Amino acid sequence: MKVYFINCLILILTVQNYLASPVPDTDSTDKEQLNEHNKLFELTLDKFVAFNADLGEICDEYRSKAFKELEKNNDLKDKELMDREHEKYLKSLEKLKEAKTTEDKLMEVAKLQREIIYSAKHVEDPNADEETKRLIEKYHVTDFLEKLYAFYFEFYKGFEEAYEEYISELNETQKEEQKELLKWHEDFHEEKKCVEKTEKFLQFFSIFYDE
Ligand SMILES: *[C@@H]1O[C@H](CO)[C@@H](O)[C@H](O)[C@H]1NC(C)=O
Predict the structure, then answer these.
(1) For this UniProt entry, which residues form the secretion signal (predicted)?
(2) Among residues of the chain, what percentage have pLDDT more than 70?
């Protein structure tokens, strides 16, 4: 289990907003096609990078507190490993904040999200080992996971608003051309479980950008 991330989960208490801002108006028709210059794609990617950076800041800010608690209770099994993991984590956070190109931004958010999804699945795994279950219960990790999900749902709410606004500006021909996006949205919208919804959300980007 990724103990480091569990520590973060324990301490994420703040729910932040997507801060939905209107999709910028532009005359360029290129901004309404399914490519990397699409305005919904650009806006969403930037917001998602910011969301990930906030998530990272919150984790980092409270990390030392969580470590103290774990140390005090003798639950910190391998401090060196945790420190190394933390170093790695800080580096990816730096890289995320420095990412300028679409490719780099996508790569860095995907890396962070993969780790979060992996950790969340572990926490929710009914077949986890006893030690893991003990820690999850002792530190009320599930409660905090719920708070983390609320943080995501707040983000998705903002995204849905931007999406609706974008779609409302398309004419029938454009909608037909962008059915891949509309189909994706139907799926995404239906999904109510946070981890699965997040996996679907990540597919949004590949509609516009082929690696
Ligand atoms: C739909 O919008 C596109 C892009 O603005 C335009 O090129 C096209 O002529 C429009 N089609 C119809 C049927 O209005």
Answers:
(1) 1-20
(2) 81
User: HSE on the CB side for 175, CA within 13 Å?
Assistant: 11
* pLDDT, tens digit, 9 for 90 and up, residues 12-21: 333 333 333 4
Q: Which pair of structure tokens corresponds to residue 20? A: 């939905």
Average pLDDT over residues 44-60: 85
The DSSP output letter for 193 is: S
**Ligand 1 pocket check: which of 34, 171, 172, 175 to mutate, most ligand atoms within 8 Å of Cβ?**
171
The set of residues, in sequence order, having a beta carbon less than 8 Å from that of 11 and lying 6+ positions away, is: 58, 59, 62, 63, 65, 66, 144
Residues with CB under 6 A from ligand 1: 29, 171, 173-174
Cα of 92 vs centre of ligand 1, distance in Å, is 42
Q: What is the pTM of this model?
A: 0.81
Ligand 1 centroid distance, CA of 85 (Å): 51
